[in-house]
Specification:
18 helices; 60% helix; alpha/beta; 5 strands
């Protein structure tokens, strides 16, 4: 992993401290507000991309599709590296030469350089973003073939080479500073995740998953419009005749991204997030193509999809897996007297020290889920799973009582609070922990329809 993405939030925290605003609330929720602002910048980028591709009417429809995406609203506002990559990629697309008059030596050089800068920033934030830009770069170079003498040399030497080398040097410098030694993150990423298969330990899907399940899920109601837009760009007729080339390029860009990501066994919904801005503009093109003949039906369809997406987004953002934030706010309350919090949930299921900044909590611990693979044997902080042959998280859920018995028999420092998920821990195991450690149930936080997070606290002295 590269340091560039966390460095963004480290700089944000440093700024808060410099002006004396590093309160617990600001440290806990400031990154969300920052990422929310960046997601809004992504909305503007889609509006600009829609305007350049489809005109003023297309810009408004593109923005409506973007704003009405439940997955973008759910994922882009989270401080994932994929979220930052998505925004930077959208900004790059907003300036990228896509259509006739925007390629070759006639392409606005300033816009092209801005696009290359944002694309390079996306690669610095998440090196795997390079696979998306290989396609657009290749398509642009192909469009320059009639102008080899005048344009291709100017493009490569005047724009791509200096921006690429500067970005590479910046990425290496950031990671060198972060790790304290020379570290080429893209090489390590490819070696561990692809060549040695470490990413497969986090779950795998079939090769067709991105096309058959992921993309239909993240687009949901906009999928029919995307298919119409892509088809119309190939036919070249109708309301988007003038935009045929850029829409076809965006549709091909989406398909390329899905196809290349399908080569990896490990797949996740959030990996497709950077493809959404392009997909939304293609969907807007599909709406414009249908609107001429089915105006009233299209408006009704748009209202129906927006309403359905609003319901899905509200449920996922406000109700599904809702325990972590209120739980951490509760632990940060001085009245709880929390000093050492032990988490027995899925790893990384809750925020961590950012949410107890400036409080009496001095220690926290959660179950480790580093893959038990030999490739990580000598990686600091991750090698014990490989030595034990099983992840700590799996060992706990296999037998919680045995895990607690072994752990606390060799530790003198007992937690003041224990957070336990009910996902795979039954009532008898929770009762055993309470009785053996002199604790009692002091709070319950609903998480999903079936599960909750239980908090055990030290029982008051008799």
């Amino acid at each position: 992993r590269g340091w560039a993405h966390p460095a963004l939030f480290a700089a944000f925290y440093a700024a808060l401290r410099a002006v004396g605003l590093d309160s617990r609330w600001a440290v806990a929720y400031g990154p969300r507000m920052l990422q929310g602002a960046l997601a809004g910048l992504g909305d503007w980028a889609v509006f600009r991309l829609g305007a350049r591709t489809l005109g003023p009417r297309g810009a408004r429809v593109s923005l409506l599709v973007q704003a009405g995406s439940w997955f973008y609203a759910y994922a882009a506002v989270r401080p994932f590296s994929n979220s930052l990559e998505c925004v930077l990629s959208a900004l790059a697309l907003a300036f990228w030469p896509l259509g006739a008059g925007q390629v070759g030596p006639g392409a606005p050089r300033r816009d092209r350089r801005i696009a290359l800068g944002f694309a390079a920033a996306a690669v610095i934030a998440r090196p795997s973003a390079a696979i998306f830009w290989l396609f657009l770069g290749g398509a642009h170079l192909a469009s320059c073939r009639p102008f080899l003498q005048a344009g291709l040399r100017d493009l490569c030497i005047g724009d791509v080479l200096p921006i690429g080398l500067a970005s590479l040097a910046l990425m290496v410098a950031i990671d060198w500073l972060g790790y304290g030694e020379f570290t080429f993150v893209p090489f390590n990423f490819v070696r561990l995740n692809l060549l040695e298969g470490v990413s497969s330990e986090y779950g795998t899907h079939r090769w067709w998953w991105y096309f058959g399940e992921c993309f239909p899920t993240v687009l949901s109601g906009w999928l029919p419009l995307f298919l119409v837009g892509a088809a119309q760009s190939l036919r070249g007729g109708g309301a988007i005749r003038a935009a045929r080339r850029p829409v076809a390029t965006l549709a091909a860009f989406v398909c390329w991204g899905l196809a290349v990501m399908s080569l990896s066994a490990h797949k996740e919904l959030r990996f497709a997030l950077p493809l959404l801005p392009a997909a939304h503009v293609v969907a807007a093109a599909g709406y414009l193509a249908l609107e001429q003949r089915y105006s009233k039906l299209c408006r009704r369809f748009m209202v129906l999809v927006l309403a359905a997406h609003a319901v899905v987004g509200a449920f996922l953002a406000g109700f599904h897996q809702r325990a972590p934030a209120p739980l951490m706010d509760w632990l940060a309350d001085p009245a709880t007297n929390a000093t050492f919090v032990d988490f027995y949930t899925r790893c990384h299921a809750t925020p961590f020290f950012s949410h107890v900044h400036g409080t009496g909590v001095r220690r926290m611990r959660f179950l480790d889920c580093s893959p038990a693979v030999q490739a990580l044997l000598n990686v600091p902080g991750m090698g014990h799973s490989a030595r034990d042959g099983i992840e700590e998280e799996d060992r706990f859920f296999d037998d919680p009582v045995e895990f607690w018995t072994s752990r606390f028999a060799r530790e003198d420092d007992k937690p003041s609070h224990m957070v336990i998920t009910t996902e795979k821990v039954n009532d008898s195991a929770v009762a055993w922990a309470a009785q053996s450690l002199g604790m009692e149930l002091c709070a319950t936080f609903p998480h999903t329809f079936d599960d909750a997070f239980l908090v055990l606290c030290r029982a008051p002295a008799a």
